[in-house]
Design brief:
The protein is an all-alpha fold. Helix content is 68%, strand content 0%. The chain has one domain (8-58). α1 (8-15) packs across α3 (34-44).
Length: 59
């Protein structure tokens, strides 16, 4: 998201996940469901493997 300069609002809108839900996850650092992750991947046009690889690189 940050690498592409995309806002949380944009990702929420593209993924179909309510913005309030996305904001809550990010503010609290709570876990996303697999379904939510898949929707985000689709919105970012990346695979689940790319998404998880990106998370491993930032950890």
């Amino acid at each position: 998201m940050n690498a592409r300069g995309l806002s949380l609002y944009y990702i929420a809108k593209q993924s179909g996940i309510p913005y309030s839900t996305m904001k809550s996850h990010f503010q609290r650092g709570s876990q996303l469901s697999l379904q939510e992750i898949q929707l985000i991947c689709t919105a970012l046009d990346i695979s689940l493997q790319q998404f998880l690889g990106g998370l491993a690189a930032t950890a």
